[in-house]
Specification:
globular; six-stranded parallel beta sheet; TIM Barrel; single chain
C-alpha cells in the first residue's frame, strides 16, 4: 500500500469513526432524561405575541426545536422586572405568565403536558411530550405574603428563586451584596425569610439559590431541610462575576445534596467576555456614541444602529464556545463529583450563548463533548437530568 493510499484510508477511517461516535452519542442523549431548569421564553416570546407552538425564526426555543434537541423536561421561568408590568403588582405578573403557559399546554395536548410531582415527571418523560414545570424567578413576586407563596404553589410553582437581581425586604441578592451594598439594610435572610424557606420545604417547593447573595445563600443552606437548586448559575473560579458560585458554595451544595445547573450565558462562562462587555459599556460607550452621532449628522437612530453594529462585532470576537461551557460542568465534577451538576441554559433570557449552541436544538452537543472527555454513560445521564430528578424527588410531595 502506497503512502498516499494509507493517508486516504486513515482519513476515511477517522471520518466513519466520527460518524459512529456521533450516532452513539445521540442514542445515549435520547435514552437520558434531559432536564433544563431555566428557560425565559414565556417572558421574551409568549408575552410579546410569539407562538412557541410554531417554528419560530427568532428566539432560542419552540416546540419544534425542543423536540429536535431531545429535551424531555423544562422548567419554565416566571419572571418580572423590578417594576411590575401590571398595575396590580408583581404577583399578578406571575399569575399572568403561569396562565400563559397553561393556555399553551391546553392548545397543544399532544405535544406538552404539565407536571406537579415527581411521579408525574418520571411517568410522562419519554412519552413524546414536553413535560412542563414552573419555576418562579424572584421572591418579590410573593409580595411579602406567605399566602401568595401558597397560592403560587397551588398554581403549579415548584421552585422559587429567593431573589432576582433585586433584593426583597427579607433576602439580599447577589447583585446588591456585591455591587450595591449601600442599598441593603441587612444582608442575608431575615426571620421572615427563614420562615419562607421552611414553608417552601413543607409545601414541596425547591429552594432556588441562583441570583442570591452569599449571605442569603449560606443562611438558606442552614435553614433548609431539603436539597437546594441553583437553576442557572456557573463557576466563579472560571468566570468571577457576581452571579457565579465559589468553591465553598459548590461544596456546600454538594453537602446539602443539591445541584448546580450551568448557565449558558457567555458573560457567565468566560472572564474575557465579561471584561470586554464591561470595557465597552463603562469605558468607551459614551465617547463612541458621540463619534457615531456626529458621523450620522446628529441622527440618534442612525447613531444607535452604528453603535449596535460596533458593539456586536466587538463582542462576537470573544464569544464563548461549547468547550468553555462544558469546562464549568467539568470543574464542578472534579471538585465535588458528578452528582451535583446539571443544565440550566437560560435560553431566551440571555443575549449571547456559546458558538454552536445557538438554540435548543443543540443540547446533544453537550452529550458529545462529555463523551469526548471520557465521561461514562452513567455520569452523562446524571448530568443531563438525573441529578435534578433526584432533587425533585427529595422536595416534591
Amino acid at each position: 500500500m502506497t503512502f498516499s493510499v494509507r493517508i486516504i484510508t486513515s482519513v476515511i477511517s477517522c471520518f466513519f469513526a466520527v460518524i459512529v461516535q456521533s450516532q452513539q452519542g445521540r442514542k445515549l442523549h435520547d435514552r437520558a432524561i434531559l432536564v433544563d431548569t431555566h428557560n425565559d421564553c414565556l417572558t421574551s416570546l409568549t408575552l410579546k405575541g410569539k407562538d412557541i407552538a410554531t417554528r419560530l425564526e427568532t428566539g432560542h426555543s419552540d416546540l419544534y426545536r425542543w423536540k429536535k434537541g431531545g429535551l424531555d423536561v423544562q422548567f419554565f421561568s416566571i419572571w418580572t422586572d423590578k417594576t411590575a408590568r401590571n398595575k396590580e403588582g408583581f404577583y399578578r405578573d406571575a399569575v399572568e405568565e403561569i396562565d400563559s403557559l397553561h393556555h399553551i399546554i391546553l392548545r397543544n395536548p399532544d405535544r406538552m403536558t404539565f407536571a406537579t410531582n415527581y411521579r408525574e415527571v418520571k411517568k410522562r418523560a419519554h412519552k413524546d411530550k414536553l413535560v412542563s414545570l414552573i419555576g418562579v424567578e424572584g421572591g418579590h413576586m410573593i409580595e411579602n405574603d406567605i399566602g401568595k407563596l401558597e397560592s403560587l404553589y397551588e398554581k403549579g410553582m415548584r421552585y422559587l428563586t429567593l431573589t432576582w437581581n433585586n433584593s426583597t425586604s427579607w433576602a439580599s441578592s447577589a447583585m446588591d451584596e456585591t455591587l450595591f451594598p449601600a442599598r441593603l439594610s441587612q444582608k442575608g435572610l431575615t426571620d421572615f425569610g427563614k420562615q419562607i424557606v421552611r414553608r417552601m420545604n413543607e409545601l414541596g417547593i425547591i429552594v432556588d439559590l441562583s441570583h442570591v447573595g452569599e449571605q442569603t445563600f449560606y443562611d438558606a443552606i442552614a435553614v433548609t431541610k431539603k436539597p437546594v437548586l441553583l437553576s442557572h448559575s456557573s463557576v466563579w473560579n472560571i468566570c468571577p462575576v457576581f452571579r457565579n458560585v465559589k468553591d465553598d458554595q459548590i461544596r456546600a451544595v454538594a453537602k446539602n445534596g443539591g445541584v448546580i445547573c450551568i448557565n449558558f450565558y457567555s458573560g457567565f462562562i468566560s472572564k474575557k467576555f465579561d471584561e470586554r462587555q464591561s470595557f465597552l459599556n463603562r469605558e468607551i460607550k459614551d465617547s463612541m456614541q458621540r463619534v457615531f452621532f456626529a458621523d450620522s449628522g446628529s441622527d440618534s437612530s442612525v447613531m444607535k444602529t452604528k453603535w449596535k453594529t460596533y458593539y456586536d462585532s466587538a463582542m462576537n470576537e470573544v464569544r464563548t464556545d461549547l468547550a468553555q461551557l462544558v469546562d464549568h460542568i467539568d470543574y464542578i465534577v472534579k471538585l465535588v463529583g458528578d452528582s451535583y451538576v446539571g443544565i440550566g441554559s437560560d435560553y431566551d433570557g440571555v443575549s449571547s450563548v456559546p458558538v454552536g449552541m445557538e438554540d435548543v436544538t443543540t443540547y446533544p452537543k453537550i452529550t458529545d463533548e462529555l463523551q469526548r472527555r471520557g465521561y461514562s454513560n452513567r455520569s452523562i445521564k446524571k448530568i443531563l437530568g438525573g441529578n435534578v430528578l433526584r432533587v425533585m424527588k427529595a422536595n416534591f410531595r
